[in-house]
Amino acid sequence: MRFAFIKCHGSGNDFPLIDARAISLDDAQWATVARALADREGPVGGDGLLLLTAGDDAHPFGMRMFNSDGSEAETCLNGLRCTARLGFEVTGLDAAQIRLKTSDAHAERAEEIAPGVESITTRAGPVATDPASVGLKVDAERVVDMTVEGLPSERRFTALAIPNPHLIAFVEAVDEAELVALGDWCEAGPALVPGRINVSFVALRDDGLFVRTYERGVGLTDSCGSAMAASTFAAGLTGRVAFGREITVHNRGGLVRARADAPDAGGMVSITGNATFLYDASIDVDPATGATSEFVQHNRREDEADAWDAVARS
Ligand SMILES: N[C@@H](CCC[C@H](N)C(=O)O)C(=O)O
């Protein structure tokens, strides 16, 4: 089956993005396509697969996101900016409430965060802190800046869902080997967190935060939008950054601007960042086996790639 796609990224979190509004495949077939296209050893590569999907009475369009291991996530906020941009291009809208797997989120076109950088603001939430929503099997009303019995780490964690699950530890300096070891442990789906979880180590910066994430179903990524949103909310909950303050959240792939509202002000998180389209291409993928053909690039969007590189280098 031939798929046209756009290779895109939000803050270095990169994905093939397919307009799937008129494509009918079942979940297992999409999972196979996701594994084939996101395979870093394969012809395209990415942190997962994004689908622009049909809307319903309340939403002009939707998004589905499959991690590179083929699992489907509840959301992907870096991916949502890219999918929203495509949705806006095909519908002519500039703002929309977008249907997600189990929830929805708002997106709108934003002022460019840097010259030549297509930018989108998303607003997601409300953030949930009860362990049942996070999928954490602990005997506590919530986990906020505390050690978690059964986790192979002495660090203090905050657990949140937006609505995908996140475990966040504030650290002096990010130790990648420690993050990967903990992320790998969670990927095995232990009794403490059977549905697995995204794990982030977060350091305070003068202008905000630096977030490094081991993503569920992916591994270490250059950035994770929902982790940056969850980290901003966790910084508010733990008194490290005032709720309502706009901060810069840095990551390995670049940065976004973020603001978390306090729980009694709605508990939503806004993120403004890039939605960069790198190239347009097409490829054959067998949805049963994942076998791929050579892919063909139809159009490289060098200007957009260069505009983002200037931000990432700064
Ligand atoms: N990269 C994403 C999150 C993707 C899903 C995540 N790995 C999960 O399984 O929850 C983002 O930008 O939010």
From TrEMBL:
Catalytic residue list: C76, C224
EC numbers: 5.1.1.7
Metabolic or biological pathway: Amino-acid biosynthesis; L-lysine biosynthesis via DAP pathway; DL-2,6-diaminopimelate from LL-2,6-diaminopimelate: step 1/1
GO molecular-function term, one example from the UniProt record: diaminopimelate epimerase activity
Annotated compartments: Cytoplasm
Main location: cytoplasm
Catalytic class of the enzyme: isomerase
Highest taxon, organism lineage: Bacteria
Classification via InterPro entries: DAP_epimerase_DapF
Keywords (A to Z) from UniProt: Amino-acid biosynthesis, Cytoplasm, Isomerase, Lysine biosynthesis
Pfam family, one: DAP_epimerase
Record's catalysed reaction(s): (2S,6S)-2,6-diaminopimelate = meso-2,6-diaminopimelate
Binding site for substrate: N13, N67, N164, N198, E215, R216, G225, S226
Site (Could be important to modulate the pK values of the two catalytic cysteine residues): H166, E215
Swiss-Prot/TrEMBL GO biological process terms: lysine biosynthetic process via diaminopimelate
GO annotation, cellular component aspect: cytosol
Family as reported in the entry's similarity comment: Belongs to the diaminopimelate epimerase family.
Subunit description: Homodimer.
Function: Catalyzes the stereoinversion of LL-2,6-diaminopimelate (L,L-DAP) to meso-diaminopimelate (meso-DAP), a precursor of L-lysine and an essential component of the bacterial peptidoglycan.
Protein name in UniProt: Diaminopimelate epimerase
Organism of origin: Stakelama marina
